[in-house]
Amino acid sequence: MLFISKKIPNKKFRIKLMKNKHIDDCEKLDKKIFNSNSSRTDFNKELNKNNTEYFILIMEDKINISLTLSKVKFYILHILLKSFFSKYQTEFKIVGYIGLWYVLDEVHIVSIAVDNDYRSCGLGEFLMIGAIDSAINNSSELLTLEVRVSNHKAQKLYSKFGFKQKGVRKNYYLDDREDALIMTTESILNSNYQNLFDNIYQNQLNIYNEFS
Ligand SMILES: CC(C)(COP(=O)(O)OP(=O)(O)OC[C@H]1O[C@@H](n2cnc3c(N)ncnc32)[C@H](O)[C@@H]1OP(=O)(O)O)[C@@H](O)C(=O)NCCC(=O)NCCS
């Protein structure tokens, strides 16, 4: 899946399954996002469970090598270097992730995070699309999650995807005993939900088409 954000021009975003080779970068990102010395998620452990699925959001950035090459005086050398480096012009950076646990016929969204530098540009929404698409393809019945009562931004994102508050878990978070809201969708297999999801998905495709 490819996404282009109007707010971040000239960059492309893709969602891929997280693999072991991505763990170091994801831990660095996690520390940055949660301003912590250690990663809050043990990605290694998570990837080794058989009921989990983690997706990463990769930003593709074209590196401007023409500036460097313009310093090369000899024309032939310039052309050779340009064709050699053309394969390596794109830089990839992990700027978000989302984690899912498949429990019976439910999918628990256990984490979602976007790099602080790229927030409010539609990337969280894009990650949710990737996750829900996967849940629908797995014929899961519904999605559920916990969110801090104070995290209004995330709650707004979840509401957009049809999550509704179903209860409260008192003192849920170990660090500060904050309560969590339990938010759950209706059946993601019924036509009401699929229409909502299709509309959001279509909206993203329209944005992409404007750029392609
Ligand atoms: C929550 C989070 C993933 C959202 O990612 P994002 O890329 O900034 O979100 P998007 O730009 O895709 O926005 C999607 C929706 O989220 C809500 N939202 C995003 N930024 C918001 C803000 N600053 N204020 C209020 N709502 C906001 C809106 O509903 C928005 O839809 P809209 O633009 O149509 O109004 C991101 O803020 C984050 O990583 N936060 C830290 C980690 C975290 O709190 N994770 C959730 C744990 S339960």
Explain this structure to me?
36% of the residues lie in helices and 29% in strands. The protein is of the alpha+beta class and 212 residues long. The protein has a single domain (2-141, 187-211), classed as Gcn5-related N-acetyltransferase (GNAT) (Aminopeptidase, 3-Layer(aba) Sandwich), CATH 3.40.630. An 8-stranded mixed beta sheet has the order 1-2-3-4-5-6-8-7, sandwiched between helices. A hairpin with a 7-residue loop joins strand 1 (2-3) and strand 2. It binds coenzyme A. Coenzyme A (COA) binds at residues 33, 112-114, 119-125, 147, 151, 153-154, 156-157, 160.
Task: Note the topology.
Elements: E1 2-3, E2 11-17, H1 23-33, H2 43-48, E3 52-62, H3 66-69, H4 75-85, E4 90-103, E5 106-114, H5 123-137, E6 142-148, H6 152-160, E7 164-169, E8 180-184, H7 191-211
Parallel strand pairs: 5-6
Antiparallel strand pairs: 1-2, 2-3, 3-4, 4-5, 6-8, 7-8
The chain binds coenzyme A.
In CATH terms, the superfamily is Gcn5-related N-acetyltransferase (GNAT)
CATH architecture: 3-Layer(aba) Sandwich
Radius of gyration: 20 Å
Order of helices and strands: EEHHEHHEEHEHEEH
The strand order across the widest sheet is 1-2-3-4-5-6-8-7
Category by helix and strand content: alpha+beta
Number of helices: 7
> What is the CATH topology classification name?
Aminopeptidase
Arithmetic mean pLDDT = 89
Q: Sheet with the most strands?
A: 8 strands, mixed
Structural features:
Aminopeptidase, 8-stranded mixed beta sheet, 8 strands, 36% helix, 212 residues, alpha+beta, binds coenzyme A
